[in-house]
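Input record, target 12 of the design panel.
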C-alpha cells in the first residue's frame, strides 16, 4: 500500500516536471531514472554514493525500463515515459500487448505498400520518403523488419518478452 501511494505521488510530481524531447528543457532517460528512484523511495536499495547509472541499473533489475532498454543519455520521449510508468505500476502486460499490436499493424501497412511498389526492395521501400514521409516504420522493440524468403511480405518475428509468475 505504501509503495502504491509513493508511486502515485511520484507520478504526480514527475508529470509536472517532465518535458519530452524539447531541447530547452529536455530530460535524459538517466535523469528521469534518478527522479523515479527518489520518488519511489528506492534509495535504500542503491549503493553508498550511488551514481545516476546505479539508478538505471536498479530500475532495470526490477523490470522497469523503456521498450528498447535504457539509453542513459538519450532524451526521454513520451513513449518512454508511458512504458516506464506502466511497468512501474505492474501493467507491463498491457504495454507488451499494445506494442505487439502496433508492430503487427505496421507490418500490414508495409506489406500493402510493397504490393503497390513491387519493384522496390524492402530497404528501398522503408526508406522511400514518398511512401513513408514520416520516416521508416519501426518495430516498437527495435527489431529489424526482414523478408528472408523473398516473397515481398515482411516476415513475422517474435518480441523479446518474458513474464515471471509471482
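The sequence produced for target 12 reads:
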Amino acid at each position: 500500500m505504501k509503495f502504491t501511494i509513493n508511486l502515485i505521488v511520484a507520478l504526480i510530481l514527475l508529470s509536472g516536471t517532465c518535458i519530452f524531447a524539447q531541447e530547452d528543457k529536455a530530460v535524459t532517460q538517466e535523469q528521469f531514472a534518478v527522479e523515479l528512484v527518489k520518488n519511489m523511495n528506492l534509495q535504500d536499495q542503491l549503493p553508498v554514493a550511488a551514481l545516476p547509472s546505479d539508478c538505471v541499473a536498479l530500475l532495470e533489475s526490477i523490470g522497469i525500463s523503456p521498450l528498447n532498454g535504457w539509453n542513459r543519455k538519450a532524451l526521454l520521449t513520451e513513449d518512454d515515459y508511458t512504458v516506464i510508468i506502466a511497468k512501474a505500476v505492474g501493467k507491463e502486460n498491457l504495454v507488451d500487448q499494445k506494442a505487439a499490436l502496433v508492430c503487427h499493424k505496421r507490418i500490414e501497412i508495409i506489406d500493402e505498400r510493397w504490393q503497390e511498389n513491387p519493384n522496390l526492395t524492402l530497404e528501398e521501400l522503408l526508406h522511400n520518403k514518398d511512401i513513408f514521409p514520416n520516416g521508416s516504420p519501426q518495430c516498437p522493440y527495435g527489431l529489424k523488419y526482414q523478408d528472408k524468403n523473398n516473397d515481398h511480405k515482411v516476415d513475422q518475428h517474435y518480441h523479446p518478452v518474458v513474464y515471471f509468475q509471482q
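Residues 2-90 form one domain.
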